[in-house]
Amino acid sequence: MPRPLLTRMLVPATVCLLLPxxxxxxxxxxxxxxxxxxxxxxxxELEQRFEEDHAGVxxxxxxxxxxxLAEQANDGAPGDVLATADRKSMDLAVxxxxxxxxxxxxxxxxxxxxxxxxxxxxxxxxxxFADSDWVRCxxxxxxxxxxxxxxxxxxxxxxxxxREIDVKSVLAKVTSGEADAGFxxxxxxxxxxxxxxxxxxxxxxxxxxxxFIATLEQSEDADLAADWLELVGSEEGQELLRExxxxxx
Length: 249
Prior knowledge:
Layout: H1 5-17, E1 29-36, H2 40-53, E2 57-64, H3 66-74, E3 81-84, H4 87-95, E4 104-109, E5 111-116, E6 134-137, H5 142-153, E7 162-164, H6 167-175, E8 181-185, H7 186-192, E9 196-200, E10 209-215, H8 222-233, H9 235-243
Parallel strand pairs: 1-2, 1-3, 6-7, 6-8
Antiparallel strand pairs: 3-10, 4-10, 5-8, 5-9
Helix pairs in contact: 3-4
């Protein structure tokens, strides 16, 4: 005997409830995270863990200069979370009215000097890098502001061969052999692995850049954004960041 019409109509809906959201139409939710370029590897790992714990959620990561991302957020660019590599960039977003909650400091990152593994310029450390073709971030971004401060404090007045848009661009110049040396964050040196040799920068450990994170006013799901902040600040998230070269605030 054929089943009643009502029963047959309810079956697809029942099955759909048992499946991930992505398997039932267009119900997948997106969490858009705008983050400093130096957070690339760490946040990609957190993305996997977040999606494992949040069925039907697709994390969309957008990396770049903290200053640029803050400006984009102020211009109304879609986003749920903003993570910056210094206080000035986060303050820019706060002053622009795009931050929906109180920013939280979640990590710090010190500047280091890196050279290619084969070290063609034969650099032995901070004392003899200045005569080489070295690069750093532009003055308008956090890694550039920090580099400029430390270079001035160490009385280095030589100009870099180029100023790059973000720290990953500096790292790429070094690992590709286009530059003899470059100033990047400790986390970027860790991410580069055996592609670079790393030297300390005098005073850098005493002046690390603080990293801040906050939900954005334009977020379409403040609760989901808060879950991301919770993961970043959790012991699991903090341990991952420490392994990546960041330090605890």
